[in-house]
Specification:
With 286 residues, the chain is α+β, with helices and mostly antiparallel strands. The protein folds into 2 domains: 154 residues, no CATH class; 121 residues, OB fold (Dihydrolipoamide Acetyltransferase, E2P) (Beta Barrel). Helix content is 47%, strand content 21%. The strands form 3 sheets. A 5-stranded antiparallel beta sheet has the order 5-4-3-7-6. Strand 9 and strand 10 form a beta hairpin. About 2% of the residues have low confidence.
């Protein structure tokens, strides 16, 4: 069980689609409380009962937005995709549940003037018990589904012969990658390029020269590099990576996506779900 918890897992915190996830959950909370009126809501005779009850959904929405988008910026190391695991995701889900419960407890205490502070820890515990099991189950289900799909995708890709002659035949375009940096335009031998990695408004260029891997920082973005270079073998494979597909020697899959091993390089280049078809199509091409 501990080995599974340490398995790589895709981190979705900080991504735009979480806005709609938070909105959907907030609407569901309001709808559920208004329709079923649990926890003594039905006994209240307040004329603004419906509006006050719907407020719990609004609070849930706002707390989720904060947790989804602010927390990843504060705790960057925890939510780093490189080290994100199934166990971290389950722990993050538990924290999310606790924050929603705390937010709703404080809403009841300070905005509805209900004496909920004394029982706020009971509310948190009850919310945790109700939510942690389905969320954990969904995380495990998602892990198994993604793992099987990505392993299958990696096995469907057949790499070509890795001889120098075959690489040169495959790469029949121009021989240089161009990088526009401020007022200077640099040329990088295409055969030396391994991959590029984004770092905000900068990009790390990893290349190999005389069997030695070097890493240099350039003041440019991956988007700019993409617009300056149109090569079939130089492809975006992740929001933070561009890879030279002629350097790929092995492809494996895990729950996060595909993982590319490159010639003479210890670093593993990730391929996110969005770009798996791009990688498959390149190696299918004659």
């Amino acid at each position: 069980m501990l080995a599974i918890l340490k398995s790589p897992f895709p981190c979705t915190y900080g991504q735009k689609q979480n806005f709609y996830v938070a909105l959907s959950i907030g609407i569901f909370v309001s709808f559920f409380l208004l329709v079923f009126e649990p926890f003594g809501i039905a006994d209240s005779d307040n004329k603004y009962r419906s509006l006050r009850t719907a407020g719990f959904g609004v609070v849930s929405f706002l707390v989720l937005l904060f947790y989804y988008f602010v927390f990843p910026k504060i705790f960057k190391n925890y939510f780093s995709e490189k080290s994100y695991t199934l166990g971290k995701d389950m722990l993050a889900s538990a924290g999310l549940i606790l924050f929603v419960a705390l937010g709703n407890g404080l809403y009841a205490q300070f905005f509805l003037h209900e004496n909920a502070f004394e029982s706020i820890w009971i509310l948190i515990w009850q919310t945790f018990l109700v939510g942690i099991f389905p969320l954990s189950f969904l995380s495990l289900l998602q892990f198994n589904r993604k793992l099987k799909a990505n392993i299958k995708a990696s096995k469907e890709i057949e790499l070509p012969n890795r001889s120098i002659e075959s690489i040169q035949q495959r790469s029949n375009e121009a021989k240089f990658l161009f990088i526009s940096e401020e007022q200077e335009k640099k040329q990088i031998p295409l055969d030396d390029l391994l991959y590029l990695e984004s770092d905000g408004n900068y990009a790390f260029l990893n290349q190999i020269k005389d069997g030695v891997v070097s890493k240099t920082l350039h003041r440019t973005t991956l988007k700019s590099i993409e617009s300056d270079n149109k090569f079939s073998n130089i492809q975006r494979c992740h929001r933070s990576f561009i890879v030279n597909l002629n350097q790929v020697v092995e492809i494996n899959g895990n729950a996060q996506g595909l993982k590319l091993s490159l010639q003479n390089c210890d670093e593993i280049v990730p391929v996110s779900k969005k770009y798996i078809s791009v990688i498959k199509n390149y190696f299918k091409a004659p």
